């Protein structure tokens, strides 16, 4: 099967600090993958490199055989851990903004998602709660017709009700031939939607496996394995 | 449809067992259409690929049949349904007998405990 994302021997250093060390992995089409690691493990850096927001110090990354750069940004929809929207905007303005920037933005899908999320186009973004803002950011990211979606901590800091809503929306609106990479350290809430997981620790990949195989072989939940691996951190 | 998932076990096996249970107890009848991958995934809030895997396994065991362009249906073959019924009964029995043995019951005592339990239920009209 052709891979959607290829990461080859990527390292990243900030000054003298090495954040990623010789990381390689691939993701196939139609997969939902979890990039799991504790705070400071290198998850967010990895996400930024794939999104083309920073350059690797060594190695290469490509999306559908397109090296990460201006061209690959049309294939990748990135939901950063900090919102892209501006304070003065209303929800409707954010939609227009996305449509101007991205030719693959689907306003029709965005409206269906807003309905599902019980968000109104007239609401001011500055008045949204944290959970509502996460719902909006997810709507913006998933309403592009991209091949690779990257969600950085999509359920971080929101209450359990909002979490459920966000996960439901993800299942409801994701395109089956696209690939989603989700970084998170909140494993138990989200592990049921993963096909595969990548454990990253101190800038290195220590495990990349199908989740059902892991459960079968170890008789444990992904959350439990995660806790074991990161216990000493 | 609700399933209390145990994240320690493969999810696709849990959905399989759930659907087998529905078939054996007659909640899903021979020839009934089963939900699509997409519908079931949305309902259970899990990954569609996991549901796909469940259906593949059920097809392999010939419990579910795919009719081209029509969807998936519970098999109409009684013997297949009887077979999974026997398999599930066997599982329950194995677990019960092992549990009783671990508690220190001898074979005759286990048989007697079962007979007494059934007799007591019948006398209460259950």
TrEMBL record, chain A:
**Positions of the ABC transporter domain:** 5-227
**Which Pfam families does the UniProt entry name for this protein?**
ABC_tran
Keyword set, alphabetical order:
ATP-binding, Nucleotide-binding, Transport
* UniProt keyword Transmembrane, yes or no: no
Recorded GO MF terms: ATP binding; ATP hydrolysis activity
The record's listing under InterPro entries reads: AAA+_ATPase, ABC_transporter-like_ATP-bd, ABC_Transporter_VariousFunc, P-loop_NTPase
State what protein this is by name. ABC-2 type transport system ATP-binding protein
Automatic annotation (TrEMBL), chain B:
Please provide the record's keywords in A-Z order. DNA-binding, Transcription, Transcription regulation
Q: Which PROSITE patterns match?
A: HTH_GNTR (PS50949)
Instruction: Name a Pfam family for this protein.
Output: GntR
GO MF annotation: an example: DNA-binding transcription factor activity
Q: Does the keyword DNA-binding apply?
A: yes
Superkingdom, taxonomy of origin: Bacteria
Domain HTH gntR-type positions: 9-77
Is Transcription regulation set as a keyword in this record? yes
Question: What is the recorded name of this protein?
Answer: Transcriptional regulator, GntR family
Q: Which organism is it from?
A: Paenibacillus typhae
Higher taxonomy: Bacteria, Bacillati, Bacillota, Bacilli, Bacillales
């Amino acid at each position: 099967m052709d891979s959607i994302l290829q990461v080859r021997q990527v390292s990243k250093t900030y000054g003298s600090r090495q954040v990623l060390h010789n990381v390689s992995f691939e993701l196939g089409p139609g997969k939902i993958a979890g990039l799991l690691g504790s705070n400071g493990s290198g998850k967010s850096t990895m996400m930024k490199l794939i999104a083309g927001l920073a350059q690797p110090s060594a190695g290469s990354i490509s999306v559908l055989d397109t090296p990460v750069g201006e061209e690959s940004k049309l294939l990748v929809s990135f939901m950063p851990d900090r919102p892209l929207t501006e304070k003065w905007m209303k929800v409707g303005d954010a939609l227009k903004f996305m449509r101007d920037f991205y030719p693959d933005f689907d306003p029709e899908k965005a409206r269906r998602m807003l309905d599902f999320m019980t968000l109104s186009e007239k609401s001011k973004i500055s008045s949204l709660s944290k959970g509502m803002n996460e719902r909006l950011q997810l709507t913006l990211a998933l309403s592009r017709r991209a091949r690779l979606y990257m969600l950085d901590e999509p359920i971080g800091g929101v209450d359990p009700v909002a979490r459920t809503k966000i996960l439901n929306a993800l299942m409801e609106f994701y395109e089956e031939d696209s690939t989603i990479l989700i970084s998170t350290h909140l494993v138990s809430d989200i592990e049921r939607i993963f096909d595969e997981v990548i454990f990253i620790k101190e800038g290195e990949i220590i495990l990349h496996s199908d989740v059902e195989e892991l459960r079968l072989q170890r008789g444990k939940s992904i959350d439990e394995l995660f806790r074991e691996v990161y216990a000493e951190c | 449809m609700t399933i209390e998932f145990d994240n320690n076990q493969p999810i696709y096996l849990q959905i399989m067992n759930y659907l087998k249970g529905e078939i054996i107890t007659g909640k899903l009848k021979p020839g009934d259409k089963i939900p699509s991958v997409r519908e079931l995934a949305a309902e259970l809030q899990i990954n569609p690929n996991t549901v796909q895997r469940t259906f593949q396994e059920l097809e392999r065991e010939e419990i579910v049949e795919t009719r081209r362009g029509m969807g998936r249906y519970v098999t109409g073959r009684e013997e297949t349904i009887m077979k999974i019924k026997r398999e599930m009964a066997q599982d329950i029995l194995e677990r019960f007998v092992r549990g009783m043995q671990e508690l220190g019951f001898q074979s005759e005592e286990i048989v007697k405990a079962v007979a007494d339990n059934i007799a007591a239920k019948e006398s209460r009209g259950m």
